[in-house]
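Fold it.
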Amino acid sequence: MEERKKILIADDDEEIVLLLKSFIDKNFPQLWVFTVSDGARVMQNLEKVQFDFLFLDLNIPKMSGAKILHEINFLEKSHRPKNIFVISGEDVSNMQVSSAQRSIFYFGKPIDFQKLKLSISNILNPAPAPSAKASLDVRFMNPFIDSTVNVLRVTASTEATKEEVNVSKGDSFKGDISAFYPIHSPLFEGFFCLSFPKSTYLKIMSKMLYSEFTEINEENRDGVAELCNQIFGNAKAYFNDKHNTSIRMSTPSITIGDSHKVVSVLKAPRIIVKFSTDSGDFFVEVSFAKVAGAANA
């Protein structure tokens, strides 16, 4: 008999813990649920037990969720959960960050249990790799491409040239630092991601912040969010004006880690655009799915 996979729920909100436990017991009886209410106990449990899943509140007491995500890297490999569900009050809207070591899913509050069920189901029963035949309407891509070129030129004194446009099959685009946005409007849903290899990012940040950088640190890490914010903001203004829709702005989320990728639970083509600069290559990833019942734009 196959051993039951283990889930650790780490949250000090008893109502959320009960909701998550009830949801998992009902939909995934093959999973074994453990619960803790503070960060110190999270690390104690991870050191002793090999968990397949971790549900983590970012604001858990005694050790923050961000600190726990950092400390996990120092555990024995067999004790690092491969699937981490970060629960945050911010509008992170069902994003996923993946590396060779683990996948981190970001869910806002209140939790979208339908999409959570889909995420867990896809992990337990992975679907075949998607076909690369899908395409994305250029009306949706061109504003992001144009905005990326303009923002890099103005904000970072960097000329960016579109090199390749590909439909992603799940391959990593070798990003070391990324910022990403959920996209919500009456016409479509999706996400936007801006990602840099470390060497490219440090050179661009050195131009943008007028200081020489050799490492990604607290002084320069928010630069990727600022660029993402400007690129997304310009594209959003285009869509809102030309397609008479309304895309909401929020705070971009940042992830840092070797050769990661950012994907969404959204079932839609994921288009990766590779840009070249004199500082190196970087990537923009965009995904859209038309909202059911929405009129043609």
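Confidence is low (pLDDT under 50) at residues 91-100, 128-135, 292-297.
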